[in-house]
Design goal:
80 residues, alpha+beta, two-stranded parallel sheet, globular, plasmid
């Protein structure tokens, strides 16, 4: 488990990118609520562990859109 306490001036999603690197051992999943729906969170989890990649469980916000002009098949895009 990883966590970071932020103040009112720091966006939570900005802190998430560094959290997977603080976890020792295998990461089974990354679970968060829709406020963390962003490519940076998915990228941080994937960069930390390639094989097997962690399951990422973040419900997309209603306003979410597919990332990338070419509509690359990513976990986040499939969630959206």
């Amino acid at each position: 488990m990883a966590h970071s306490l932020t103040d009112k001036d720091t966006g939570d999603i900005l802190e998430v990118a560094g959290l997977p690197a603080t976890v020792e051992g295998h990461i089974a999943s990354v679970i968060a609520h829709g406020a963390y729906d962003g490519a940076s969170v998915y990228d941080a989890a994937a960069a930390r562990q390639f094989n097997p990649p962690p399951d990422i469980i973040i419900p997309p916000r209603a306003s979410s859109i597919v990332n990338g002009a070419d509509r690359v098949d990513t976990v986040r895009n499939r969630h959206v």
